[in-house]
Amino acid sequence: MKRNEFLKNSAILTSASLLPSNNVFSQSLQQTGMDKITDKDGNFVLLPLPYSENFLEPSMDQETLHLHYTFHHGDAVKAANKDLQMIQKALGENNVETVDYWTKKLSFHLSSHILHTIFWTNLTNKKSDPTGALLKQIEKDFGTYDKLKVLISKTAKGVDGNGWGILGYQPYTQKLTVLQCENHEKLTQWGVIPILVIDVWEHSYYLKYRNRRAEFVDNLFPIINWDNAAERFNLSQKMG
Q1: How far apart (Å, rounded) are the C-alpha atoms in residues 142 and 40?
Q2: Do both 116 and 33 map to the same domain?
Q3: Range(s) of the domain holding residue 166
Q4: In sequence order, what are the beta bridge partners of 95?
Q5: What's the distance, Cα to Cα, between the start and end of the chain in Å?
Q6: Which residues are registered as beta bridge partners of 196?
Q7: Is 111 in the same domain as 145?
Q8: Cα separation of 32 and 55, whole Å?
Q9: Are 217 and 224 in contact (CB under 8 A)?
Q10: From CA 138, how far away is CA 195, in angstroms rounded?
Q11: Domain count, the chain
Q12: pLDDT per residue of the chain (240 residues) written in tens, 0 to 9
């Protein structure tokens, strides 16, 4: 089976952008390619950030961003490609004894790639708040924006070990939901489409904040790009 056929048939993902192109930030993402997670051949790929490495200071320092993006995200991309190759190799050799190992690895590494890609685009260097349809949905599902902030902040800070705090949309209930994700793939709610993610792996904050995860999470809120989250929300409704 060819690589592209495997990707298509297993419905892992496509090379299409995760965002529409109806505003300047989205157009910038598409020009840099950051909002795509595969290349034209279906290989997982790490593409340039849509901003410089000091763009998020002081909330996120340049050294942390460089190491986080280049090595932690970058290594996940390389590993996901290897995982997929090993699955194909096992299928080609009719050696399915190893498939369970590599599919677990692919779940870990590919989830890391997807969540990191969303994470980078969820951040900017100026304060914004939810507006429009997203704000209405937040108020419907959580009461107020302030209540959502309390919930997602507490959720992210309370992850056991490494993981993520996630705000996602459930197409089957047409509601927003907040969840913890341990590592990159555990405690996932099937069908939920992430629109905002907060990375609380130690590599996200340890150089600047040491063990003060809560302080790091608090300092992310002023640089969350709610316009980007809103576009993901609008797209998730169409997908549902």
Answers
A1: 40
A2: yes
A3: 132-239
A4: none
A5: 30
A6: 167
A7: no
A8: 16
A9: no
A10: 12
A11: 2
A12: 444 443 344 333 333 344 444 444 444 444 444 678 999 899 999 989 989 999 999 999 999 999 999 999 999 999 999 999 999 999 999 988 999 999 999 999 999 999 999 999 999 999 999 999 999 999 999 999 999 999 999 999 999 999 999 999 999 999 999 999 999 999 999 999 999 999 999 999 999 999 999 999 999 999 999 999 999 999 998 876
Continuous segment of H or E residues that includes residue 21 = none
By residue count, the chain amounts to 240
As given in the structure block, the two tokens for residue 232 are 């993901």
Residue 14 lies in a domain: no
As given in the structure block, the two tokens for residue 66 are 């460089």
Q: Which two tokens stand for residue 239?
A: 């997908």
| Domain finish residue from 94, 121, 148 | 121
Which of 93, 121, 149 is the C-terminal boundary of a domain? 121
pTM of the predicted model, to two decimals? 0.87
